[in-house]
Amino acid sequence: MKKLEIVKAIDDRIIHYDIFRDLIYEEGVKVTSNNRSFVTQPRDICIELTKKCNLRCENCFIENGDEEISYNDIYNTIDKIKDKIIRICLSGGEPFLYSQIDKTLAFISSMNDLGKVISTNGTCINDDHINIMKGNYWTVAVSIHGRKETHNQYTKSSSYDTVIKIIEKLGKNGINTHIYSVMHDRMSLEDYEFIKRIKDKYEIAVLRMIKVRMHGRYKIDNNNELFTAVKRDLSDGIILKTEKTNTLLLSVNGEMSYTN
């Protein structure tokens, strides 16, 4: 996929969104490989569609539950702030378990001046979802947490083969795909090198390595060797979030806040 950008004037600022890299930046603000947003004010929103999830990842910061957001809250919030943002991200839980996911994807797909991202474990995407996203410049961020055995142990599932198949299918349908990978205590250097090979094999735009967050099922990660290796590889295609990201968050209960 060639480089594609959305450029938008917001509050007398010129804001850019790089669709390929899922990167927001403001003219005059330095861009590095340590984040995905380089702006002076929040210019995107993350919407927590549901707390439902079919996996139990060891370091997940979301506690599983049955709650999900009202579609009206999604519609009304986006309609209210669409001129103030340049990117929408859908998350969960597992967002493809949201009961109104098809309707939500279609609604957001109609907005040509907004970047569109969905973060998923890759196990619940069907052909209908792909057909809605295809051609509408979505980025699908799929989680892989190591080699097959490592990934399955970390997610407490046998999901690895399904995830690889959906990554391949997304690529064949021309959908921009990223890999999100948590640097958990099971991950070795061999796991990291394996994920990089997956990135190359399936022509993944960006591999985003994620330091464990001190929320939810938090477990300490002291793998300094892995952290050093990732820092060495930082580039347009390999990113490590080490800085705060100012993002609006719409939670399942319809409340707006800031997150980093």
Characteristics:
260 residues; alpha/beta; TIM Barrel; 9-stranded mixed sheet; 4-stranded mixed sheet; 7 helices; 27% helix; 25% strand; globular
Write up this protein.
By secondary structure, the protein is α/β, with parallel strands linked by helices. It has a single domain, classed as Aldolase class I (TIM Barrel), CATH 3.20.20.70. 27% of the residues lie in helices and 25% in strands. The chain is built from 7 helices and 13 strands. β12 and β13 form a beta hairpin. α2 packs parallel to α3. The longest helix has 13 residues. The mean pLDDT is 90.
Query: What kind of sheet is the major sheet?
Result: 9 strands, mixed
The strand line-up of the biggest sheet is: 11-10-9-8-7-6-5-12-13
Q: In the CATH classification, which architecture applies?
A: Alpha-Beta Barrel
Percentage beta strand:
15-25%
Structural class: alpha/beta
> What is the average per-residue confidence, as pLDDT, rounded to a whole number?
90
Assigned CATH superfamily:
Aldolase class I
First-residue to last-residue Cα separation: 29 Å
Q: What coarse outline follows from CA principal-axis ratios?
A: globular
What name does CATH use for the topology? TIM Barrel
Strand count: 13
* Portion in helices: 25-40%
Low-confidence stretches: none
Radius of gyration: 17 Å
How many separate domains?
1
The total count of helices amounts to 7
- CATH top level class name: Alpha Beta
Order of helices and strands: EEEEEHEHEHEHHEHEHEEE
Task: Give a quick precis of the structure.
Helix content is 27%, strand content 25%. The chain is an alpha/beta fold and 260 residues long.
